[in-house]
Amino acid sequence: MKTFDDIGVRRPKLARSYLALINAQPGRPLAMFAPRRVGKTHFLDHDLAPAARQAKWLPVYADLWLQKSAPLEAINHALEEALDDVTVPRSKAGRWAKTTVKKVGALGASVDFGDAPDRRPLPAVPELRLDALVVRLAAASDKPILLMLDEIQALGDVADGEKIIAALRAVLHKRRDILKSVFTGSSQEAMVRMLSTAGSPMYQFAQLLDFPVLGDEYLQQLADHFAEVHPGKLLHMEDLRRVFARIGFKPGLMRDLVKSLSAEGLTDVDAGVKRFLLDDRQVAGWSALLQPLDLFERAVLLTVAHGLPPMGRETLDALAKVQGSRPTIAKVRAAIERLRRAGLLAKAGGAPTAVDDPLFAEYLQGQSLGLLK
Ligand SMILES: Nc1ncnc2c1ncn2[C@@H]1O[C@H](COP(=O)(O)OP(=O)(O)OP(=O)(O)O)[C@@H](O)[C@H]1O
Ligand SMILES: [Mg+2]
């Protein structure tokens, strides 16, 4: 039986258009940005990789966030795994069968396989290893490689991030006939900052794209399934649209919301969000986000959530009450920077700094500014 969890929107056309863009600019990666939880990874996995396979490219995925301390090693590891998949057949017998048979016993009873085929060892220096792996993998698979680097902004957090970017850039350029690449990130700002310090401006290196959020086709499926489960009850599209925007176009969250409505047979989507905001698990999650922050950082976060200009007089006055004396602008700025690095605040394009997750922002708005008074 179909459940809400089975609902998914496929975007093959978008995927193909991305491949065409990549193809048209050899050596230049696409960098797609979108806020957290809107479906970037899902798209790579369910749409872009299948489209790449269809185009006879070999997609290779690496999550740089998962191995934050050693991102280049994470990329190399992903390439090595892919190389194994291409060169080493899954079963042991298969692997042996690829080596030459040296000696077969008289009755065929003892079979002595030769050594596994020799290869020059891969270079140990990660930068060179990357280059060698790309060449070997493309040759072994006889396909161009599509290197999908998820959470690329993680490179901004490592000491040698710039060096890694430079290495990536060099390999992407040198191997442009066999290597194509897509980056995703949730902080365009962090990435632009990082890449601009690593030489020339980001836009010269990668093509920046705003990854489009899901729309009606997703909401319609949720509404249709709801109607199936609850004959005679309807979720209205305009309610779904409004709420989807309100929670920041996060499909997983939207699905959870509709599921919770469905569990109780309710159709008021806005009221559903309100209940969601008060849900114990949700509140526990937000408290956990606040927990590592000091009092001053929390105060700054609250002022931003309440829409106060962070360096404004009113804000500084309110913050003065928190710490007993008027903070310097530099101190506020440093706190904002830390909140950004923690992923709690974001700045989209020319827009002012804001709380990244709109639902979290609503939760914070419900918190009294009394803390600051
Ligand atoms: N096309 C889609 N159809 C249905 N559900 C989707 C779709 N895309 C994403 N989702 C759901 O949204 C949730 C978040 O998706 P995903 O992890 O891909 O987002 P993300 O942008 O990579 O997030 P993060 O910034 O945390 O890495 C997942 O639970 C996924 O099931
Ligand atoms: Mg992701």
Layout: helices, strands, pairs:
Blueprint: H1 12-24, E1 30-33, H2 40-54, E2 58-63, H3 71-87, H4 92-98, E3 101-104, E4 111-113, H5 126-141, E5 145-150, H6 161-174, E6 179-185, H7 188-197, H8 202-205, E7 207-210, H9 216-229, H10 237-246, H11 251-264, H12 269-278, H13 280-290, H14 295-305, H15 313-323, H16 329-341, E8 345-346, E9 354-355, H17 358-365
Parallel strand pairs: 1-6, 1-7, 2-5, 5-6
Antiparallel strand pairs: 3-4, 8-9
Helix pairs in contact: 1-2, 3-5, 9-10, 9-11, 11-12, 14-15, 14-16
The structure holds adenosine-5'-triphosphate (ATP) and magnesium ion.
Any key phrases for this structure?
two-stranded antiparallel sheet; 17 helices; 373 residues; binds adenosine-5'-triphosphate; 9 strands
Task: Describe the protein.
This protein is of the alpha/beta class. Helices cover 53% and strands 10% of the residues. It has 17 helices and nine strands. It has helices at 12-24, 40-54, 71-87, 92-98, 126-141, 161-174, 188-197, 202-205, 216-229, 237-246, 251-264, 269-278, 280-290, 295-305, 313-323, 329-341, 358-365, and strands at residues 30-33, 58-63, 101-104, 111-113, 145-150, 179-185, 207-210, 345-346, 354-355. It has a five-stranded parallel beta sheet with strand order 2-5-6-1-7, sandwiched between helices. Strands 3-4 form a two-stranded antiparallel sheet. Strand 5 (145-150), helix 6 and strand 6 form a beta-alpha-beta unit. Helix 1 crosses helix 2 (40-54), helix 3 (71-87) runs parallel beside helix 5 and helix 9 (216-229) packs across helix 10 (237-246). The longest helix is centred in the N-terminal third of the chain and has 17 residues, at 71-87. The model has no long low-confidence stretch (mean pLDDT 87). Bound molecules: adenosine-5'-triphosphate (ATP) and magnesium ion. Magnesium ion (MG) binds next to helix 2. The site of magnesium ion (MG) has 3 residues, from helix 2.
